[in-house]
Amino acid sequence: MRKNFFNPPETYVDVLLAGTHLFPRMKKFFDATESLKKRLGSEVVRTDAEACFAASFDNTKLSFLPEAVIFPRDESDVETVLREANKNGVPVCVRGAGTGTTAAAAPVCGGWVISFAEWTQLEIDADAGTATVQPGVVTQKINDAAAAHGLFYPPDPASVKHCTIGGNIATNAGGLHAAKYGVTRDYVLALEGFLPTGEKVRWGGAVKKYVSGYNLRDLWIGSEGMLGVITRATLRLVPRPETKHTFLCAFADDASALRAAQDLSRERIVPSVCEFLDTVSVDCAERYSGKKFFEKTSAVLLVEVDGDAESVPAQAERVRAWARSRATAFRETSDAEEAESLWEVRRICSQSMFLLADSKLNEDVAVPAKNFVPLLEAMRNVTGETGLATPIFGHAADGNLHVHVMFHRDNEQERQAAQVAIRRVMETVVALDGVITGEHGIGLAKSPFLAIQHSSAEIAAMLAVKKALDPNDILGRGKMFTPFNVWDCVPVDVKLPWDKKKVAR
Q1: Spatial distance between the Cα atoms of 80 and 92, rounded to a whole number of angstroms
Q2: What is the CA radius of gyration of the chain?
Q3: Model-level pTM?
Q4: What pLDDT is attached to residue 10?
Q5: Please, are residues 171 and 445 in contact by the beta-carbon 8 Å criterion?
Q6: For the chain, which domains are there?
Q7: Which neighbouring-strand residues pair with 255?
Q8: How far, in Å, CA of 264 to CA of 326, rounded?
Q9: In 186-252, which ranges are E strands?
Q10: What region, left, alpha or beta, does residue 290 occupy, with left being phi > 0 and alpha being psi -120 to 50 degrees?
């Protein structure tokens, strides 16, 4: 494996392969950066090693150094950066907190990074039931601010305490409450920002109905920052549920738990949360925490219902009847503090997997409920073929299951086996009428698999949209449509704010 030098693959690798023809372009990037710095100031345009390194990677820890990191003061700075980037052919990446898991925020082609981490204005309009936010607002803070007015912002990805709303919109993030409440797209009323070429635009409005022209608002949502730069969003809020009732249910085996999740849906029970953890995940959580969640280590479903004080007891009774007929054991509570003890297995399962190996691939695949068990069986076959553990947990109510491949990065045999395993995961998911990413996006990490999911005609249509809005390929250059082998890169050894302590195996 090689280190990630300044800007692979478009500088370091190409220079090796094609000689020195890229040096004039590199000089052009440097000259453009110096000109921008003189225009906006060195506090806005930072080229120091500390700033560039911090903006060179996301949660994947694959580092590619940019020429500069821009901390815009206002929208005029954003416009200036984009217009200068187009003028000089400089690639631009946009980032918030860097919690993404596919290297979508990593500047693989160098150039400039626009950081919105300091754009944190947040305003709640309680009468309208909306929140107006800048892209750097941490998602949890939106919900906290809404709660003061009896309102609720439901999308809550696992990184909710760290991730920013701009990144959530870029990947159409979901979360634990998607079972009942939906995903980010369901709450975005309007977006403001800039086209890749630097023109200011606004898509949608703070109204419930809006069909004026093409729906380019939804085109931006989930586009991974490749079709425009978001500077402000108007979000829909909903009434905050008065109360909750939580169940943790154990099952005879993994397949029984997944079938029980299907049965829950068939009985038209709509939980606010329905999370699946396979036996391997639960075993890791028990060893990590030093406690047993049930007498026997079992696959579990974490189910929660919410609403007003009158409706929740009736919902809970229906879930209770379902649990009695299908689970081997279950625990329940309507007390918030006690509920945390039931939630513990879900909250710690991700970091506890490092008991199995020092590295993992977390694939946010989604399949129809009817194919839950075939996916499970396929992953157990992958474990048999490769010898690598493939624990599974995730959002059973909407089919978004997180399949993990655990391996030791310094073990060449395991690293190669992990490459085989992850391709098998992608091929299996598509064969089961699923999707290779439900909420993390493509970025760099999943770029080799885009053609497994989409036909050449579909990809050509996407590229036509990209070309129309970003004719100079400024935003997200080298991502999504350009297959990139992340296995050629060595992650940097850094500890991020959301990293949990790994216990000794």
Answers
A1: 12
A2: 23
A3: 0.92
A4: 38
A5: no
A6: 1-115+449-491 (3.30.43.10), 123-239 (3.30.465.10), 243-353 (3.30.70.2190), 356-440 (3.30.70.2740)
A7: none
A8: 10
A9: 188-194, 200-204, 229-236, 238-239, 243-251
A10: left
Of 437, 372, 365, 376, residue with least CA distance to 401:
365
Quote the CA–CA distance of 264 and 244 in Å, as a whole number.
18
Count of residues in the chain: 505
Q: Which residues pair with 52 in a beta bridge?
A: none
How does 150-165 read in b/e, with b if 16+ C-beta sit within 10 Å?
ebbbbbbbbbbebbbb
Residue position matching structure tokens 């190409």 = 14
Residue 58: CB atoms within 10 Å: 26
Helix (H) or strand (E) holding 306: strand 299-307
Amino acid sitting at position 384: G
Other C-beta atoms lying within 10 Å of the C-beta of residue 449: 21
Q: pLDDT (tens digit, 9 = 90+) per residue, 108-128?
A: 999 999 999 999 999 999 999
Q: Which of 107, 225, 211 is nearest to 169 (CA)?
A: 225
pLDDT, tens only, 174-215:
989 998 999 999 999 999 999 999 999 999 999 989 999 999
Q: What are the residues whose beta carbons fall under 8 Å from the beta carbon of 50, sequence distance 6 or more?
A: none
- How far apart, in Å, are the Cα atoms of 93 and each of 113, 310, 340? 5, 49, 38
